[in-house]
Amino acid sequence: MSAPQINISDVASLARLTLTPDETAKFSAQLSQILGHMETLSQIATGAVPEVTPPAQPALRQDIPTPSLSIEAALSNAPAQANDLILVPRILE
Amino acid sequence: MSTPAKWEAVIGLEVHVQLLTQTKMFCGCTNHYGDAPTSHVCPVCLGLPGSLPVPNEEAIRLTLLTGLMLGCNLAPVARFDRKNYFYPDMPKNYQISQYDDPLCAGGLVPLDPFLFPKEIQDTAEAKAGRSIRLTRIHLEEDVAKSFHFEDRSGIDFNRAGTPLMEIVSEADLRTPGEAFSFLGSLRQVLLAGHVSHADMEKGQMRCDVNVSIRPIGQKEFGTKVELKNLNSTSGVRRALTYEIARQIAACEKGEAIAHETRRWDDQAGATFTMRTKEKAHDYRYFPDPDLLPVRTDQGLLEAARTRLPELPTVLQSRLIQAFGVTAYQASVLGADRVLCAYFEKAAAQAKSKATVANWILNDFLSTQPDPATTPILPEFFGELADLVADGTINSAQAKKVFAELMANPASPREIVKRLGLAQISDVSALGTYCDEAIAANPRSVEDYRAGKTNAINALKGFVMKKSQGKANPLQVDEILKAKLSA
Predict the structure, then answer these.
(1) pLDDT above 70 coverage of chain B, percent
(2) Structural domain includes residue A86
(3) What ipTM was reported for this prediction?
(4) B355-364 — which CB contacts under 8 Å span 24+ positions?
(5) Cβ of A90 under 8 Å from any chain B Cβ?
(6) Is residue B278 scored above 70 in pLDDT?
(7) Which residues of A touch B226 (CB under 8 A)?
(8) Closest-CA residue in chain A for B46?
């Protein structure tokens, strides 16, 4: 069975990656192989297997405030800041 | 501007609602606005590597409560998914949302006729009593707030990760007026459940609109346009009115409607292209591996059920039945639970409960009171209405008592004594006044007897003046008529 084709340039643009032609060829082959494994998995008949319901409630949090970071600590890794805001390149819609 | 008869609009709304929780959706940072930027942030809501989200159970309860109030199907097991996209206001580069298994599915929002725009409340459109179907309600996290400067943008992450409930309607709405009432009616339900303050102008409730047009009778939908930047219910109405007319004009010229997102400019009163949707967004949703499915059937749903309030429609029918108020008054009272509680206290013992409603909704409300803190006891309005009902004072005197009540709050009975206002209902005293009136106004008497029934008003005026406004006007009318026809 042939490995499914993947549109690598589309995936790259969604991930904001710029790929060279060599990389495009290499990753196309690798990702197609991964998808091939998924195809194999999907051949297993699971129709009769009931979905696993989580046995218990996962840990939830009570609605009680806990301390936040100080403004200084929160901004300490920001590449640029002003007026306690993190600065980013201008967002254009 | 009404839609030309050939066309109808098809409108669906996506409403985002900020929940009234103390903390954010997946971390314990305070959920509060207006504080110093970047003061309510932690590794979780900043998306720092290695941090893990833990769901806020209160946000889940509030969403389930909303589902209960709107008659949704509530999922016994709900899941959180990642919605992947890049934007500086979202630090993780994905938003935790719900895709395949939201907390609530289906449901209905009944449109309150009195929450249509004022000038169309009397039309068939408002009185149709439609209910709008919901597709789903899910829970997600809000993004940060952006500020735009000349060459940069600044991000305040205080809002990032706060709980946001998204309510999606079916494309059931047909007019801008219905969309207006939908938002108002939905807000009343959210307020009743203390789920959100849901004030659009404060951003506590935000709304995206999808709108298309089609010839009446056609089943297929036209190309839909998404509208953004709608910051008030009246803005939603104006934007829709403009956009529907724009689409109809384009179609009648034979132009195609582009599948696009348009921005409403409230000042210009028009919508403008933001971006054309050449291809659908690819958010690559997948289950968030950091979060286990939530079992709502293990206590959460029961906890939500105990908080079910009296719903707006139920409250309104009860007010109409128990207090004899009009449907309009019931809607006004239902929209303000504090005022409503004040009214119910005021009317509880009163003989004429509908009169109490008139006093509170017409006279009292026009003084812009705060019913929660006013020194004027609700019982005073019951007393005032009773004083008129039992004939102690007439309605003109009641206005004076009301004015004094606002200026120097005291029991209306006290005020009547203080101002010496009690009405004269003593038949012999009134008879004397009437005799004087007849003797002093022979011309009016003649006119009345000749068939000009209005002439009696001059005689009544004489009696009211003589009695310094204290005569019981209904009795004066009876006595005068009896004497004149004798």
Answers:
(1) 98
(2) no
(3) 0.86
(4) B355/B385, B355/B388, B355/B389, B356/B323, B356/B381, B356/B382, B356/B385, B357/B323, B357/B324, B357/B325, B357/B326, B357/B329, B357/B333, B359/B384, B359/B385, B359/B402, B361/B329, B361/B332, B361/B333, B363/B399, B363/B402
(5) yes
(6) no
(7) none
(8) A74
